[in-house]
Amino acid sequence: MLKLIKYLKGYTLQSIIAPLFKFLEASFELIVPLVMASMIDVGVKNNDEGYIYRMGLILVILGVLGLAAAITAQYFAAKASMGYGAALRRDFYRHLNSLSHAEIDKIGAPTMMTRITNDINQSQTGVNMFLRLFLRSPFIVIGSVVMCLTISVDLTLIFAVAAPVLGSIIYLIMTGTIPGYKKIQGRLDKVSKLTRENLSGVRVIRAFARQRNETEDFDEETAQLMKAQIRVGRISALLNPLTFAVVNVAIAAIIWYGGMYVDTGNITQGELIALVNYMNQILLALIYLANLIVILTKAGASNSRINDIFAMTPSITDEGNTEQEAVKGSPAVEFKNVTFAYHGEAALEEINLTANSGEVIGVVGGTGSGKTTLINLIPRFYDVTEGEVLVDGVDVRKYPLKQLREKIGVVPQRAVLFKGTIRSNMLWGKNDASDGEIWQALETAQAKEFVGKLDKGLDAPVEQGGRNFSGGQRQRLTIARAVLMKPHILILDDSSSALDFATDAALRKALARDINSTVFIVSQRASSIKHADRIIVLDDGKPVGIGKHSDLFESCKLYREICLSQMSEKEAQNG
Q: Which of 27-31, 165-169, 425-429, 440-444 has the lowest mean pLDDT?
């Protein structure tokens, strides 16, 4: 909690006013038993109705003032906690976006979603309850004991015995629940992961008739979550009955011994009633305190998980990097003795490749050969383990990330569109692009025809993930978005896999005609890369051939196998 307290900055006044008004409410509450004692000892004893009415009016006024103070405290506590939650959520999201692909891969999307939603909500609730109760409950307990001392020191010893017993109960229950709440949050991560996998892979699940298996897996995971919650709930459930038991025993003792003191004249009947009321106030304050501890325990577990993410530092930063000038006459992209290891295992080894300005480079190889990893090193999504990746003669690690990535247009394997319109998605490529530029980019990407047939054209809606478009349409729209940038380097990572051969061929011809970029084409299709100026063939992260199609077809066994698996030998030889 202390590490995150900085997010209350800007809400200092609210954070002070809320507990102070709760303190004020508690002060009014402590006066009530004294007024009641006076009403009994004076008004009832002397049968003075006027006095009783006056004391009754004072009780009403105290109640109204207490209510006003409580509402004011709640308002400012809510304002501070909501501001805290908003600031924390904003910083957490910004931090997630600062992490490199390596850290994001390590954390995983489900746990990130749980932490930015459930965990931050728990932390926000903890702040709200803390501001409302951290001053009120201890003040009620201490104040009640002090007021009891003014009535009878002997009977106050009952409070002195009950208080440490109650404190021990609260401490033991707290130490038993904190680890449990951490486990519950971990289980929530797993349930979120299963839910996300099932929703994103629903078509595959149905295609393989795996609904029952997935349901069983989900039931098992939720059952484990339920068991963890019940286990912690059972410990937490002991809190109220144990505290009630101790307090009620203390009240019984007060009534028993207090009755004797009334008989001997040491205290009055009104004072005995006041003692019982103070004991009840202590009971309610401790119940609130116990609930606060449970909430803070949950918040503490959530804060620990939030801080775990904040503690992660991005492995890729551009801190201290300054704007770089291109080295004249240098290649657009150059790999020099590049080796890359992912989680300690080599994914690429000894890559040497040069791509001059305006050239088309094809990247081909079997599944898991490192094709996507190779091109991800250019925009510095990952850093090389050994060697250098140069863009315009400058090591990519020396560029400010913004400058580097403005040079590069990336079309990923999975076509990603965002909820909005076609125009709003296209403007990601160039935020001040005119409609004419957007239509030109759509034409180059072979998307102009189907977009032109839509009722609203560029203003046609795009649903989340672009699910209202086919796979091929999504791919063409993402290509158009990258083309609109007019990038110095264009990376197409298997981005035409959903296109038919004719559209794929037309796309390659249009790219060659309309843009003057260095193009990297990653593809499983030999036909998509055979016209490239140079092709690199990867096998298990190692280059087994670099050259033109005709040369590789004769000299590289793997490339020849790939080509012949997709076309006849005559077609392959004709290029």
A: 165-169
